[in-house]
Amino acid sequence: MILSDLQHSERIEPLHPLFKTLFDYVKSHDLLHAEPGRIEIDGDNLFINNVAAHGVPAEKQPLEAHRDYIDVHILLEGTERIGWKSIEAVSNVTKPYEAVGDCALYTEPASAYVDLTPGQFLIVYPEDPHAPLIGDGPIRKLIGKVRIDV
């Protein structure tokens, strides 16, 4: 898991060949005022889910984990809390992993939380089950989906 501000994205861009492409796209487009939905950048290798949602209580948000994609959560507007727990510490599977959708769900509580403000991002890897969209109020965010093996 990596937490930082968009202005410092160049420090982590060398960690994956598509990170720079993602951050350059985000910094050069007004995505806050774009319609919610999927934004294609490099087919299934790199895309963005532009999300307009309402925050939910932590106890109602399950942990999710992915295998094929790294998630890059970028907050545009509002305040968002994201829960985290190590993959080795989760055991209460409510939805086993399905390749379609690249997701497994767990109902146990997170062991740590990160609060994002606009302009910050959180990168979660497959070993990082996470519970996004925790809060009360509207949340506008981007979820960059970066295929691990490109």
Shape: globular
Low-confidence parts, pLDDT < 50 over ≥5 residues? none
Give the proportion of residues in helices: under 10%
Order of helices and strands: EHEEEEEEEEEEE
How confident is the prediction overall: mean pLDDT?
97
Distance between the termini: 20 Å
Strand order of the largest sheet: 1-10-5-12-3-2
**Rg over CA atoms:** 14 Å
The count of DSSP E runs of length 2 or more, i.e. the number of strands, is 12
How many separate helices?
1
DSSP strand content: over 45%
The computed structural class is mainly beta
Reported for the largest beta sheet, the result is: 6 strands, antiparallel
Offer a quick outline of the entry.
This protein is mostly beta strands. It contains 1 helix and 12 strands. This is YhcH/YjgK/YiaL family protein.
Describe the structure.
- The chain is mainly beta.
- Helices cover 7% and strands 47% of the residues.
- It has one helix spanning 19-28; strands at residues 2-5, 37-42, 46-54, 63-65, 69-77, 80-84, 93-98, 103-106, 112-116, 120-124, 130-134, 138-147.
- The chain has a six-stranded antiparallel β-sheet, with helices on one face.
- The longest helix has 10 residues, at 19-28.
- The model has no long low-confidence stretch (mean pLDDT 97).
- This is YhcH/YjgK/YiaL family protein.
- Pfam families: DUF386.
- InterPro entries: NanQ/TabA/YiaL, NanQ/TabA/YiaL_sf.
- It comes from Candidatus Bacteroides pullicola.
Structural features:
single chain; 150 residues; mainly beta; 1 helix
List the helices and strands and how they pair.
Elements: E1 2-5, H1 19-28, E2 37-42, E3 46-54, E4 63-65, E5 69-77, E6 80-84, E7 93-98, E8 103-106, E9 112-116, E10 120-124, E11 130-134, E12 138-147
Antiparallel strand pairs: 1-10, 2-3, 3-12, 4-8, 5-10, 5-12, 6-9, 6-11, 7-8
